[in-house]
Design a protein that fits this description.
about 325 residues; alpha+beta; 2 domains; four-stranded mixed sheet
Amino acid sequence: MSKIKELGEFELIHRLSSRLKFRAPNTVLGIGDDCAVYPVKSGTNEVISTDALVEDIHFKLSTTTPEALGRKALSASLSDIAAMGGVPKRVLVTLGIPKKISVSFLDRLYAGFNTICNRYKVELAGGDTVSSPKCFFINVSIIGEAKRVFTRQGARPGDLIFVTGTLGDSSLGLKLLSKKKREAKDHKFLIGRHLDPTPRVLEAGILARSRINITSMIDISDGLVQDLYHICKASKVGARIHEDRLPRSRELSRICDRDQIDPFPFLLNGGEDYELLFTLPPDGVKNLKRQFLKAKALVTQIGEITLKPKKVLLEKSDGRDKVLPQLEGFNHF
Ligand code: ADP
Ligand code: MG
């Protein structure tokens, strides 16, 4: 097995990029020149975003595989494009490589990139490769296309709040990762939801192609409550969600019952669900449910947008309201 030093920067880039099999049909120039080149379509918006993942902040090399890390790094970026109602098209990847990282680690990381690129028809069109003193880091920049763009701003009082998929699996999975004993099937599912999240590109496509008046949207990366606060702030409204409507997986319910874990911190504040959280007026609900049913995709109404107070309230199962604090989700600083 060759060492990075022996390969050198350019041989390494060539080796890694040659593992990537998906090329967009309209690419003029891919990896290898100073820039990648492709034509732009008229009548669409380009949506772009960038995300950094730093060892020991976002992942630990001891608890993930390089393949899963590659898949998750791209999936998190794809989720940002989905949150705008966009179709992801191209990514650029910067690697910061410390001495402890091997060529085979990078080969496996790129196998993970390749999986997601093939699955979602996204081209890895370039990047940068640098050395890093201690920590491994990855930066992913992503470019997508959107005819209609959904933003955080635009939710109105009376709109209903929906979420895709189930909540809290990823953060419960993270908790289980640190335990020794984890052979049970439910554990595997929850850990998989943490290490290998599904960006809701399909669901975003349903919403974007529908005529449903989506008034606001965000992806849940910092926890349901914190991300719902982002919508409320941008839209200058409040929200009420209902405790007994928060969608949970059977796996989460079973583990919480069995181990006597309170599920609500996970459902409300767990990070990295990468589900879509969005609002629409009540007259769009029938259409929404029909389209999600047809696609066999899960969607749940969890509450409604309110005029006042400009806070997120939780209606408990006994009918009483509780104001949810804003900053219990993930925060770097
Ligand atoms: P420059 O010196 O012009 O910045 P680089 O040597 O950094 O060019 O990169 C050469 C080519 O390899 C470019 O097309 C760049 O996008 C691509 N590239 C660099 N690093 C990576 C990487 N980690 N993954 C994929 N492509 C990369
Ligand atoms: Mg460069």
